[in-house]
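Look over what follows to help learners.
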Amino acid sequence: MAIPRADAALLLRRAGFGGTLAEIDDLATAATWADAVERVLDTSAAPPVVPPAELTDPAKDAYTRWVACTQWWIERMRTTPAPIVEKLTLFWHGHFASSTDKVPIELLFDQIDLYRQRALGDFHDLAQAMAVHPAMLVYLDNATNVAGVENENFARELMEMFTMGNHTFGEADVIAMARAWTGHGLDRAGTSYEFHPDRHDAGDKTLFGITRAWNGPETITEIIRGSKRFVSARFIAAELWSFLATPDPSATIVADLAKAFGAARQDLKALVRAIFLHPEFRSPAVRGGLVRSPIEWIVLILRSLGISAADAHPDWFVGAMGHVPFAPPNVSGWKPNAYWISTSGLWARGSFAGYVRWLATDDSGPYRLFADLPAKTPAEIAGTLLATFGIESPSPRTRTIVTNWANGLKQPGAPSWSIRPNGIPLVALSPEALLA
């Protein structure tokens, strides 16, 4: 037995950044779909984290450190043998968002590594660690949240954006939550979490209708393990389904996933497994229902062509694409799917694809993949280009467009030399490459 190649390609796109021909071939040998899912959830080969040297070099300015970190992370996405880890790290970076507009890159790099280490672990533990990380304490101002002059920023976002969603709490809960988190701040250096009892409101507060002397971390336990656990489970299930499958899941799907999540005591790997194993995951609506974010698309291009992030300089292009690592636009992070469809965003992707095609001018670099391309038939040229980008099931229209383009360049007097470079942006900007 083996799974269909189209299913293997789908799983590699959603559990990572797309599969090469060899990776699709390998995953398609899985005896069952469940076996294939377990393969992509195996994180044992994830490499250790060795930060870029520029990150802690006092001689480097903030922009240089950001460039180094951006290239480092995209290169890790490109080369990791456990792409599910980096895929979910990218998700948590947008979900528990902090940004360089308020936070030093060193703290953000460490925060994202926290997400990396806990990306498939216990959601309760992840949320607790996120809440007291210096990057979050700075970004949402809880470092200045003290009894008598409460700051509600973190309190509100903890419930609305991070754990439960809109319309699941009242303004009185925001006030109580802010009081509970007073005193949870930073040390004098501003680089480590420190609890200050003298700044904490130790009095009774009524949160979710429960009156007690709430302290910050207890509120997260109440949300995830206590009276709000079903609300939280549905919220996180819907968020992850929207990221890995397609936005706006039905109430039935959310209920199924939340049940599995709760039964596993909020284990994130169990939730992701339930998403991939859900009968709707391989439905037509899901297969064509998700647009690749710019970073995911960049990683696809670099993986497919064997180009390093240092050579491709994605840091030059991510701003115009609207997907800047370490700098989400606001606490809401990046929106999924249709958010990435815009004229300016497509032009920016076109600029990146155009830059990539000229990275090599001979048979080195990406062109080595296409050395014999001009000698092939138009249909073979189309097949090779599409397969290079892991496009297992192109639409008849896309295959026809690429084939006709190649046929035109095979005619007498036509510049057949341009097949190799121009085939790269042609397929990289196809609907199938833009969709996950």
Notes: The radius of gyration is 24 Å.
